Amino acid sequence: MSAGSIIIGIAYLIVQLFSNKIIASSRLGPARWLSFSGGIAVSYVFVYVLPSLHKQQEDYGDKAGGLTMETELYFIGLIGVIVFYAIHKAADKAEREHPNGEGRFFWIQIAFFCVYNMLIAFIVFGTDMEGVEAAFYGVAVGFHYMAVSHDLWREDAGRYEKFGRYILAFGIFAGWVAGIAIPFPPFVLALVYAFISGAMILNVLKKELPSEENAHLPAFLIGALSHTAITLTLKYIFDW
Predict the structure, then answer these.
(1) pLDDT for residue 98
(2) Which of 70, 109, 124, 216 falls 20 to 30 Å from 16 in CA-CA distance?
(3) Could you tell me which residue, 36 or 136, shows the higher pLDDT?
């Protein structure tokens, strides 16, 4: 386990456990924080996640005995979108049946995002990324964790503070340990990456784009454009 992995893992746990306190104590305010985070998330999806998925599809398609079509990993990503959407609709139904929060809505969301956090952490720590790319990837994912946490906290602050944040932190910890301790073949990591990429794309577009009443356009544009500029610059320099 490298020092970088330890630092990123601890940072993720701190973000997951204390993200709402971090946002609340900031002078920027929730609207600016979440708009900035949403801008980073949208940029991250379009200039890093999708190109990486395309590269993996091409790499495994070129190998002997590898993928035979041009769409297999994209299909796995579609499955990620479908699974996330189905779980989201199930949570919505549970919320409508119990609008005061006493039903299954909270636990459906928490259970799914625990697995979601675990798979993202597994990809972060299970791949061979290191150095600048690992740090850059880690920062973007940290902002993503923060936005997801705040969204769940807004839906049920009491149970999130008492139970939810610890369950989600456990998901990160489990993915961290699995990614470092269990040597999975690169192709398996590519499949997991494709699945979680689909779930992340839907989550970003559905949940992280700030709603009209909570949006702060300058913060969103700063997040999106600065992250895009940095990503493209680093891709050019390091040939990611």
Answers:
(1) 66
(2) 216
(3) 36
Phi-psi region of 184 (alpha: psi -120 to 50; beta: other; left: phi over 0): beta
| Closest listed residue to residue 42, CA positions, set 214, 220, 216, 199 | 220
For residues 178 and 208, the model is more confident at: 178
Name the average pLDDT for the chain: 84
Per-residue burial over 176-194, b = 16 or more CB atoms within 10 Å of its CB, e = otherwise: bbbbbeeeeeeeebbbbbb
The answer to whether residue 22 scores a pLDDT higher than 60 is yes
CB 25 within 8 A of CB 211: no
Structure tokens at 149: 């946490």
Alpha-carbon dihedral 185, 186, 188, 192, rounded to 10 degrees: 140
Distances (CA, A) of 163 to 18, 83, 91, 206: 13, 24, 18, 24
Q: Are 122 and 179 in contact (CB under 8 A)?
A: yes
For 146-180, write each residue's pLDDT tens digit: 888 888 888 788 889 999 999 999 999 999 999 98
Which of 97, 57, 89, 95 lies closest to 73, judged by CA? 57
DSSP class of residue 211 equals P
